[in-house]
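User: I'm new to structure prediction. If I give you an amino acid sequence, what do you actually give back? Let's try with this one:
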Amino acid sequence: MPAGEIRYPTPPQLIESPSSPDDSDESTWLWTQIKAEARRDAESEPALASYLYSTIISHSSLERSLSFHLGNKLCSSTLLSTLLYDLFLNSFSNDSVLRSATIADLRAARVRDPACISYSHCLLNYKGFLACQAHRVAHKLWTQSRRPLALALHSRVADVFAVDIHPAARIGKGVLFDHATGVVVGKN
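Assistant: Good question. You get back a string of structure tokens that encode the predicted 3D arrangement of the chain. For your 188 residues, that looks like this:
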């Protein structure tokens, strides 16, 4: 290894992923992996079983689980979780670019962050990951000229996750906001 090069360890206990998957294969593989991790965690820590079941295990896809989780995290007394769930699910289900970015972001966290113990851990607990996914939906709303809703979502993300990404900001995929608290990304 050349001097100064950082080598990240290969995450342990991973099922081998497809060598050259298309988006559908990758999404199916990753969702299977996340559900297996959640089942394992529910068995080893019964206190989390209900939470893991309602947030991951009961859902048929990553898009549904992520939409449910974000809706519950970002809801308020006036911005209902059901409204947010529908908003997120519609965005993730109908936009292959969003789905691909979500998968790339999960992989980035799992591979580049030695503290990330599983994909399910990232999905449930990494506020940088969650803020980024919510931002992607806010950005989509912004580009559709649904700016009041984009800004409302942006405000909830800043309040809940302490991550402030303007809805006009364009972010690539494979993003890892490690720890994320106090991250500010402007619109330009």
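You can read the tokens as a compact description of the fold. Here is one thing that stands out. The helical segments are 23-44, 49-57, 62-74, 81-94, 96-112, 119-125, 127-143, 147-161.
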